[in-house]
Design a protein that fits this description.
The structure holds two protein chains of two kinds.
Chain A lengths: L1 E10 L2 E11 L4 E6 L5 H9 L6 E9 L2 E2 L5 H7 L4 E4 L13 H11 L5 H14 L16 H12 L6 E5 L7 H18 L2 E6 L2 H7 L2 E6 L2 E7 H7 L3 H10 L13 E12 L3 E2 L2 E2 L3 E12 L3 E5 L6 H8 L7 E6 L2 E2 L6 H5 L1 E4 L13 H6 L11 H14 L16 H13 L5 E5 L7 H18 L2 E6 L2 H7 L2 E6 L2 E7 H6 L4 H9 L6 H9 L1
Parallel strand pairs in A: 3-8, 3-9, 6-7, 7-8, 15-20, 15-21, 18-19, 19-20
Antiparallel strand pairs in A: 1-2, 1-4, 4-5, 9-10, 11-14, 11-16, 12-13, 16-17, 21-22
Chain B lengths: L1 H28 L4 H6 L5 H11 L5 H14 L12 H36 L4 H15 L2 H15 L14 H35 L2 H8 L4 H30 L2 H6 L5 H10 L3 H29 L1 H4 L2
Helix pairs in contact in B: 1-13, 5-6, 5-8, 5-10, 6-8, 7-8, 8-10, 9-10, 10-13, 12-13
The chains are: A alpha/beta, B mainly alpha.
Chain lengths: ~525, ~325
């Protein structure tokens, strides 16, 4: 039905795609897998004719017998939204914030003159019902909806005209696991019902292995391997494919921790926010953290998992001493944590966030970035001692001391995360809080950072509090895990025990929702090593 | 929404009170006797004492402040020392020139700026954008009185389409509007240049948003995406600037009013200052503060109309 042949693309002289060929049949789910920058999204945008300016393209992209690449903008517009629908990664920003969702779904119909205003609204209602939003009014605005609901609105708008091909570009990457499972289910159902084709673009092998009939693996603008999903998963002919699979299921080598006394302890911690406004009064206070107690042993790696809105960010801020608690006690090495605590206490605990680039001042050199936590110390090293410490921190994260003189933009995402870890290590803390620290990284880079974290833990005797929504990663790097739901810890225990035999229904549903690679892939990797 | 408006209204009345205290303090409390200041160096003690009595400078500070405020609330702004007429009358005469002029200029500036800014953003990096950016740069750099003189030379002296100055009053609305046209254009051009640039950059930022990509994927053309999705989202910073510009236009037209011999508020306050008529200065300043605050409130309402996310607050 859609056939891409020898697609080659460059943008202002930079080669982006190189001889990409693939074929998607009607009613088929085709998975396009690869790491960031591999050209997956550009392949999709080429088909849509929505490439950025300065793009030069050759080859063909045939929808039935029409070559989309040869069409003029005017004709392409009739195809977009009509024959080919598309949804994107970030549902939070993919909808116009000042227009109602009903109007945004109806717009697809109106723009193609497929219905009059009244009829378009009726169809919009019908499509929103189909994507599971029958309880949401047409006159609601995007900000009143959750991320999963917004992605459903995007899907409703994309399928309003029953397109033959739906392109979904990382449709669930920004969503929680249970929401992700629901959205993937919905897409699967729609594909079967409408007999349309789905091009599913993702970096997550587990997602495609569950969903796709056939997959293609992309690397550096080329398709290195494609075929039936089961076959590609089984054979992994191309070394990159097997490397990708290995990295996805990567288990860093960790030494069993020698646990001793508690380094961090929380006792009945509450954090309440004023309730939503109701006229001039306030509703019930929001219990973001509702009675959390746990201990983190020295040398241990403790995971904290939960979906967005469960209170883990609020809890993290309280643990870092950035926000006060409503009641309860948080102690680090026996001393109480609060926003007013002495700076030296903060030096014992450092944090690594998800997006290192956002937490670096782009005009600072790496040495200054890394040495910044020194302001927490009463007598920070100066001169040659300072330079030494910076060099050692860089070496600890496997960067070179010479990198101290560069700026953040000169590094890749993985290297920046290494710099963030170096910054966290400079004050020789006891506890490292890793807040979604590897969530934004590609699988191969993520595997390297996980290895690094495992090594550093042994080398420096660090304790980790590892906060993540990604269950696979938590399983790989932690000894014990806490599962948080609605402000409470609903289950805790040894990581393996919790993952193999979850007790609480919420943990069970989380694990059931998480997309998984077929079991033997991890074993195959272990056998290889 | 009601709550949002009430909170805005409350904060604006607070600013009004603070502003009145500051104006009062600056003029009445800062060293030196207002009466002596108004009469200059050669005044006799007797005349100063007379003026003090006339200005009501006898009572305590709080008493005088209370008198001033309650007077204004009743519409009694005091009597001008130089003109010997109630200040309220002076203001009323001139506001009928300044307010229409400001509104006229603002409408012109908005009508020019929004399409120009949109064209510049839509042709970003192209010839249209380049020339618009050049022209607006010029519009910002060149002072408005110079524009005013050019306009007079061209349209009044050479073409004789308009008179070079003066104001015939509102008895004949067409003639009054005609007299305000050249000043309004002179005021509007620099404002439009700024506004067009704000519109352009706000729109360019909006065009990079994900929902524009979604709209294109639905089959909208670039210009449809701009009209239906980008424009309304880009309007917030533009509204802010429009609010600021109105306040400026109301009081900041002093030079233009002088070039065109218009009896406006700008000239009144200028004369008040040169003639040391503190009653006039004080009252007109307070009035302008009031106008600015009302406009700010209107802009806040406009925000809520444009952006549904604000209505919930």
């Amino acid at each position: 039905m859609i056939e891409i042949e020898h697609l080659t693309l460059g943008i202002r002289g930079t080669p982006i795609l190189d001889d990409v060929s693939l074929r998607i049949e009607q009613g088929e789910i085709f998975g396009l897998v690869g790491e960031s920058g591999s050209g997956k999204s550009m392949t999709a945008l080429s088909v849509m004719g929505l490439l950025p300016r300065g793009a030069t393209i050759s080859g063909a992209a045939r929808l039935d017998d029409v070559d989309l690449l040869a069409l003029r903008e005017h004709d392409l517009r009739r195809i977009r939204g009509n024959d080919i629908g598309m949804i994107f990664q970030e549902p939070m920003t993919a909808l116009n914030p000042v227009q109602t969702i009903g109007d945004q779904v109806a717009e697809t119909l109106l723009i193609h003159d497929a219905a009059d205003r009244v009829e378009a609204r009726r169809i919009a209602r019908d499509r929103l019902d189909r994507v599971g939003l029958s309880h949401i009014g047409l006159d609601r605005y995007p900000h009143e909806l959750s991320g999963g609901q917004r992605q459903r609105v995007c899907i409703a708008a994309a399928i309003a005209l029953h397109p033959r091909l739906l392109i979904a570009d990382e449709p669930t990457t920004a969503l929680d696991v249970t929401t992700q499972a629901q959205i993937l289910d919905l897409l699967k159902g729609i594909v079967a019902e409408e007999n349309m084709a789905l091009l599913l673009i993702t970096h997550d092998l587990a997602v495609v292995s569950d969903m796709a009939d056939r997959i293609a693996v992309m690397q550096n603008g080329m398709i290195v391997e494609q075929g039936d999903t089961a076959q590609v998963l089984r054979d992994q002919v191309h070394p990159y494919t097997s490397a990708l699979f290995a990295a996805s299921a990567h288990q860093p080598d960790r030494t069993e921790p020698t646990r001793s006394n508690a380094i961090l302890s929380l006792r009945d911690v509450h954090r309440h926010y004023p309730g939503p406004r109701q006229g001039f009064a306030r509703g019930e206070p929001v219990r973001a953290v509702d009675g959390v107690s746990f201990e983190l042993q020295r040398g241990e790696s403790l995971g904290l998992v939960g979906e967005s809105g469960c209170g883990k960010s609020t809890l993290t801020r309280a643990i870092l001493g950035l926000d006060p608690v409503t009641s309860g006690r948080i102690c680090l090495n026996g001393a109480e944590i609060s926003p007013a605590m002495p700076r030296a206490r903060r030096a014992q605990m450092q944090v690594v966030f998800q997006d290192p680039y956002g937490s670096f001042n782009p005009r600072w050199r790496v040495d200054r970035i890394i040495a910044e936590p020194y302001f927490l110390l009463d007598a920070p090293p100066r001169g040659i001692d300072r330079d030494d410490a910076i060099a050692r921190a860089l070496e600890a994260v496997r960067l070179s001391p010479g990198d101290a003189l560069k700026y953040p933009h000169e590094f890749s995402g993985g290297q920046r995360q290494r710099i963030a870890i170096a910054r966290a290590l400079i004050t020789r803390p006891d506890l490292l809080v890793l807040d979604e620290a590897v969530s934004a990284l590609d699988v191969s880079v993520r595997a390297q950072i996980l290895d690094l974290l495992a090594d550093l833990q042994t080398e420096f005797g660090l304790s980790y509090l590892f906060i993540s929504h990604d269950l696979t990663v938590v399983r790989a790097i932690t000894d014990r895990v806490l599962v948080m739901q609605a402000g409470r810890i609903v289950e805790q225990g040894e990581t393996e025990a919790v993952f193999t035999a979850p007790q609480h229904p919420y943990t069970q549903s989380l694990l059931a929702a998480a997309p998984r690679l077929p079991d033997d892939i991890g074993e195959r990797y272990d056998a290889l090593v | 929404m009601t709550r949002y408006l009430l909170v805005r209204a409350l904060s604006l009345s607070l600013s009004l009170i603070v502003a009145s205290v500051v104006i009062f303090a600056v003029i009445e409390v800062i060293p030196g006797d207002p009466a002596a200041f108004m009469l200059g160096l050669n005044a006799t003690d007797e005349s100063i004492a007379n003026l003090r009595a006339e200005l009501g400078l006898g009572g305590s500070l709080t008493e005088r402040y209370a008198n001033w405020i309650t007077g204004m609330l009743r519409g009694d702004f005091g009597t001008s020392y130089t003109y010997r007429v109630p200040v309220a009358e002076l203001i009323l005469d001139r506001i009928w020139v300044s307010l229409p002029l400001a509104i006229f200029a603002l409408i012109l500036s908005t009508l020019i700026a929004i399409p120009v800014g949109v064209i510049a953003a839509a042709t970003r990096g192209g010839a249209g954008d380049f020339s618009i950016m050049g022209a607006t740069q010029l519009g910002i750099a060149v002072p408005n009185f110079w524009f005013a003189m050019l306009l007079v030379l061209l349209f009044a002296v050479t073409l004789q389409w308009f008179s070079a100055g003066g104001f015939p009053g509102w008895d004949n609305p067409a003639a009054a509007l005609k007299a305000l046209t050249l000043p309004a254009i002179a005021l509007a051009l620099p404002q439009a240049s700024i506004l067009a640039r704000v519109m352009r950059s706000a729109l360019i930022e909006t065009l990079d948003q994900d929902y524009i990509r979604t709209a294109r994927a639905k089959g909208l053309s670039r210009s449809q995406a701009i009209r239906r999705h980008a424009l309304k989202n880009a309007l917030i910073p533009v509204l802010t600037i429009i609010g600021l510009q109105f306040s400026f236009l109301l009081a900041g037209a002093i030079i233009i009013e002088n070039v065109f011999f218009l009896p406006g508020l700008g000239r009144l306050i200028f004369q008040g200052i040169t003639q040391r008529d503190l009653v006039v200065v004080e009252s007109v300043t307070m009035l302008l503060v009031f106008a600015v605050i009302v406009v700010t409130f209107l802009v806040d309402i406009a925000y809520a109309i444009v952006d549904p996310r604000l209505r919930r607050r």
